[in-house]
User: Which sequence fits this backbone?
């Protein structure tokens, strides 16, 4: 769906919801149990690949029809919130990130997918258990995973070679990471070993290193923002800027990404969704699972896209939904080609998948994926922490004080 079509759809949806009027596409009439209205937030370069899957499904049989609606990612959850709250114009199926499922499942707005997995067409054992576990709330499953997208490690092979490092051997631990970063730093050339993100991907990096150090941000009903592991993580990242001097200071959002694309940042952490942009940039880059920087265990921040079914009075069109999800589970290579790694075992264990460059490395991270804690409104609650982390990385606040302030704000928010 093109940008103008998406923008028109959003205006149409908002108008319909605010006026209380129902609406329907020509291909999906209300009450037709064989037509599925599907919402997704894939408005970036991954959108055409998902469209390809839906198109192929619709052409593969004549019984069911999927009406795909791509909503801009920046507006997606606003639309989800409005629609689920009003219960008007509900889609039959939608994509939801694993860390957002708890917000809606606790409000009884989603169908438990045990209903779907009872179908002979969908078997929970066909998906990676980490992804399934991440969609569980209070013992019940609410999502059928499309993928697992962990933080990944990228490096500039040309800069490695110029620094006398093996361009095909990324660092594996904290010692090597720091040694490589120092060798790769040349301030006089505006070149850095590792440009530290202050926002953007910083939460993913922080949570990865924290988990590798054995820490948790939330456990047994309590925030752990002031834990020794959190303080150690924050000091480590800060010191890369101000002590080790392998990173420029004061970077704005995506400053680390821009430097990487310019060939001025030798090592970079980002998600698998960046593959198309990196390949199109002309960079000679490598990709691997994140190195174990923390001293305790290999972990990496991860999230998932999941199919969820909103609860609807007129029924959930379960046979049609089950048929489509079964098809996606078996025919996810188009999604893999976008850079992602599908959570379906039929895809990530297949020979065509293993012949790809980045995607098999993404799948290597599945077993040590660390999802955000299942806390309602986690995005808002964790913002208190990462706003304080940002101040520390900009040199405006003491790490210990910042974590203490973040803890107080989070506790006050829940109270």
Assistant:
């Amino acid at each position: 769906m093109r940008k103008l079509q998406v923008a028109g759809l959003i205006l149409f949806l908002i108008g319909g919801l605010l006026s209380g009027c129902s609406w329907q596409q020509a291909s999906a009439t209300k009450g037709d149990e064989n037509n599925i209205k599907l919402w997704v937030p894939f408005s970036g370069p991954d959108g055409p690949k998902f469209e390809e899957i839906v198109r192929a499904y619709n052409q593969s049989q004549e019984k069911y029809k999927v009406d795909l609606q791509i909503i801009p990612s920046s507006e997606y959850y606003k639309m989800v919130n409005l629609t689920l709250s009003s219960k008007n114009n509900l889609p039959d199926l939608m994509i939801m990130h694993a860390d957002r499922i708890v917000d809606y499942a606790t409000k009884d707005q989603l169908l438990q997918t045990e209903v779907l997995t009872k179908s002979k067409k969908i078997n929970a054992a066909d998906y990676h258990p980490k992804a399934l576990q991440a969609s569980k709330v209070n013992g019940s499953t609410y999502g059928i995973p499309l993928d697992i997208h962990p933080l990944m490690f990228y490096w500039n092979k040309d800069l490695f070679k110029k620094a006398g490092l093996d361009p095909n051997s990324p660092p594996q631990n904290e010692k090597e990471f720091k040694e490589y970063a120092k060798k790769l730093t040349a301030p006089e050339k505006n070149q850095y070993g590792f440009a530290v993100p202050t926002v953007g991907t910083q939460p993913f990096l922080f949570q990865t290193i924290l988990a590798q150090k054995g820490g948790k941000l939330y456990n047994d009903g309590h925030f752990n923002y002031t834990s020794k592991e959190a303080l150690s993580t924050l000091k480590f990242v800060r010191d890369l800027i101000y002590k080790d001097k392998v990173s420029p200071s004061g970077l704005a959002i995506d400053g680390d990404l821009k430097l990487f694309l310019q060939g001025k940042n030798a090592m970079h952490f980002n998600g698998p969704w960046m593959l198309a942009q990196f390949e199109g940039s002309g960079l000679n880059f490598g990709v691997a699972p994140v190195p174990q920087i923390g001293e305790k265990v290999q972990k990496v921040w991860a999230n998932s896209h999941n199919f969820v079914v909103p609860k609807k009075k007129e029924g959930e069109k379960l046979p049609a939904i089950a048929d489509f999800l079964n098809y996606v589970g078996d025919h996810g290579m188009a999604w893999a080609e976008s850079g992602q790694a599908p959570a379906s075992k039929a895809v990530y264990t297949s020979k065509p998948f293993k012949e790809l460059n980045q995607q098999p490395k993404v799948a290597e991270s599945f077993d040590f994926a660390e999802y955000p804690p299942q806390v309602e409104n986690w995005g808002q609650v964790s913002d208190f922490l990462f706003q304080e982390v940002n101040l520390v990385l900009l040199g405006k606040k003491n790490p210990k004080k910042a974590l203490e302030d973040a803890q107080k704000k989070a506790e006050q928010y829940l109270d």
About this structure: The first strand starts at residue 35 and ends at 40. The chain has two domains: 3-148+304-370, 150-302+377-414. The two ends are 43 Å apart (CA to CA). Confidence is low (pLDDT under 50) at residues 1-31.
